[in-house]
Design a protein that fits this description.
Structural class: mainly alpha
Radius of gyration: 20 Å
Largest sheet: 2 strands, antiparallel
Helix content: 40-55%
Number of helices: 5
Strand order of the largest sheet: 1-2
Strand content: 5-15%
Distance between the termini: 47 Å
Amino acid sequence: MIVLARLQIEVTHPTVNVAGLDFNVDTIRNTLIVCAILLILGVILRSQLRVGVPTQLQNATEAVVEYINNLTEETLQGRNVTLGPLAITLITFLLIANWLGLVPGLKSPTNDWNTTLGLALMSFVPGSRGCRGRPGRCSASSSARCRPLSLPS
């Protein structure tokens, strides 16, 4: 029991109260840092695009994007839902956010429940919209497409 008490990690966040709502300052700051890193990576990837002969970075990026797109397409069994870009964005965000927690003095934004629940909600909503953006308005013939993605076919 004494060992477990010593291993506890302090998870307090400095907060700011705005209009009756508490905001975790370090979580917002670190999320903005992760977003800035993602934007810089996007600009670097964009600057490396070539029309004729692709660069090695462009080949690697296209291979990853094609793999994730094929994986989501196989998993969804022909349903017309494109989740590849969302999956790539979430994986990259989570990877960089968790690496940010390894930097001394910075905490991972995913250390806060608000970020974790926000990402879960953001990834659940597109998955549960199986009727092309109009939930609850499906005909009997299209009922196979209208199930949430988390349910078996």
